[in-house]
Amino acid sequence: MEISSKENTHFFSNNTILPVDRSSFKSESSASKEKQSCCGGIKIFLGALSFVYFAKALSGSYLKSTITQIERRFDIPSSLVGVIDGSFEIGNLLIIILVSYFGAKLHRPRIIGAGCLIMSAGTFLIAMPQFFMGRYRYERFPSTINSTVGLSPCLQDKSQTPLSALEKSQAKINAGCEKEAGSSMWIYVLLGNLLRGIGETPIQPLGITYIDDYAVEENAALYIGCVQTVAIIGPIFGFLLGSLCAKLYVDIGFVDLDSVTISPKDVQWVGAWWLGYLIAGVISILASIPFWFLPEHLPKPESRKDSSTSSEHSKFIIEESKDQCTSYWQQAKLAEMAKFLPSLKNLFGNPVYILYLCASVIQFNSLIGMVTYKPKYIEQQYGQTSSKTNFVIGLINIPAVAFGMFSGGLIMKKFRIGVLGAAKLSLGSSFFGYLLLLSLFAMGCENSDVAGLTVSYHGTKPMTDYEQALFSECNSGCSCSRNDWDPICGENGVTYVSACLAGCQASSGTGKSTVFFNCSCVGTFESSQSSSAVVGPCQKGKECPKMFLYFLVISVITSYTLSVGGTPGYILLLRCIKPHLKSFALGIYTLAIRVLAGIPAPVYFGVAIDTTCLKWGSKRCGGRGACRLYDSSALRYVYLGLTLVLGTVSIFFSVAVLWVLRKRSSPQDETLSANGERGACGTKSRKDNFVNSDQLIQSTYWPEKETRL
């Protein structure tokens, strides 16, 4: 058996095509040209790949910035938005194995280019519903739209409105119902995001291995670090683009903006969410162009031509003796399959790896859920507009994350921290990060005063879930609907669900300048001195802007603190497994993060957030739509509480990792040489413990890194 194995090895060493050193056949000038061609080719590929990383990070972060816009536009709950957000990971998982395995056999640059085109097609598909589902309709009293007639919001008798008008209105609603019942346009958003995930799949595995194969060995880490650094810039522009588009009305270019009666501060406001996807799609197309002109192979650098390791691509390509080689490849594949189960057993038999994997999965559940709904939390808790929220996240939070990751690597290099030190730094980062997050419980805003939902119509006491009643004596004579959401702000500082429920008898003006008079419910309020009201909800309490400022400061510090532990954690993962299992271990790690965190976290976070809704919108054909008003206190406890509970559980696993490492460390281990036999994660020699500076300074990659806030 040993002889057969040696023969197989000899055959492969003779027949596998390796870069041939032709220096003896070339003149000095031709060798110089080859070197220049190699350097030029890899730098062009590096620039193209960096732009692709920017494009995919931009589109991914832009999706996060439009979560609330999509929810309102398609009138869907947060839980369904979570499913849409998780569909990207599903698309990625569908073909990751096929791309990683077969991609190395084919033309890698062109596969990346094709992936960019698929990604752009998915991005365009997300925006398509805007052009097929008609204009956006929001709930408004007729006199605020286009009528100068002072209709009474409180319809004490339906005869106040001509019967023909009622019939026309009902016919219009029925027609809209038939159209709406036949299409659930949010499915196209889900499919588009799924397609984005499929297109993004080949970029990282094929792009990084291409650089590693053809770059000068000492430059490979620097090049990969450059690519990952550019990937961090993408989310900054993604959220800033989201901020710009959120300022623009959803139907800009299709309707007269003067006729729009809601403002960006209104909970029904929907920005031009689709515009950013068109821009991101165009950027993805531009990013794909260079890859169609790049070669399948680049000249190998002189320093690597004699290397014993062949490129990822050359391992699969054998041009000579194909017929003879077939049987040997089959035997090799069987041998590799036979090694799979022992490798899996070896990996899962490593307690440090398993504990760190569990800690990472739970922590990423916490972070992904927090990041996905952070814009919604800021909007609902502090009364901020979508535009301002995205601007703050893009310009403040994400740079803090990038600086934190860089700082983590710098600390490890400066203090020459080993495996045990990396575990301590990662644990300390998580502990202090979640401890800071705990302080955010005290930095919330109280509920807005909404008659019938958070306060009684007399304003005497807060309302409980069982006492919520939109109808009162002051509006008992009006024919109002409990399903409407057309808030007005009384001069008493209380918000009313609609002018009808406020008992308003008259109105004047049009659009945003509409004023309601003789509102019986406003007049009965304890602190009321007038009975008039204006369009739109009242502003949050006076303390809310100050609380928002405190929230931003703590949020930035928390983002930085949590990110400091990213690089040490990644190094801990690499150092705690046997060298020949690194690729396999990283593959299992990435798969676990995507399946157990990337997909479910947005869904159950959305379900939990939905439980805090006080007032649901209604669809035109009946049924529950998007939430119009959340209980601020309940939302704060659910959102932050769920994040902290998951974070605390992950810290316990991190403590277990540190305990196992300490238990395995001993003075005897420190005396072992680098060539000595050690168990997984045993203390290595001093030299091995010092992590290579190039690996630390570069921005290491892990799923959802770009938006880890």
From TrEMBL:
User: Which residues does the UniProt record annotate as the domain Kazal-like?
Assistant: 468-523
Source taxon at top rank: Eukaryota
| Record's catalysed reaction(s) | L-thyroxine sulfate(out) = L-thyroxine sulfate(in); L-thyroxine(out) = L-thyroxine(in); 3,3',5'-triiodo-L-thyronine(out) = 3,3',5'-triiodo-L-thyronine(in)
Its membrane topology, per UniProt? Multi-pass membrane protein
What are the UniProt keywords, alphabetically? Answer: Cell membrane, Disulfide bond, Glycoprotein, Ion transport, Lipid transport, Membrane, Transmembrane, Transmembrane helix, Transport
Query: Which cellular compartments is it found in?
Result: Cell membrane
Q: Name one GO biological process term.
A: monoatomic ion transport
Name the CDD domains for this protein.
MFS_SLCO1C_OATP1C
* All copies of domain Major facilitator superfamily (MFS) profile, residue ranges: 45-665
Which GO terms of the molecular function aspect are on file?
bile acid transmembrane transporter activity; sodium-independent organic anion transmembrane transporter activity
Name the residues that span the membrane.
40-59, 80-104, 110-132, 220-250, 270-294, 353-371, 391-411, 423-443, 547-574, 586-609, 638-661
What is the protein's name according to its record?
A: Solute carrier organic anion transporter family member
Q: Name one GO cellular component term.
A: basolateral plasma membrane
SUPFAM superfamilies attached to this UniProt entry: Kazal-type serine protease inhibitors, MFS general substrate transporter
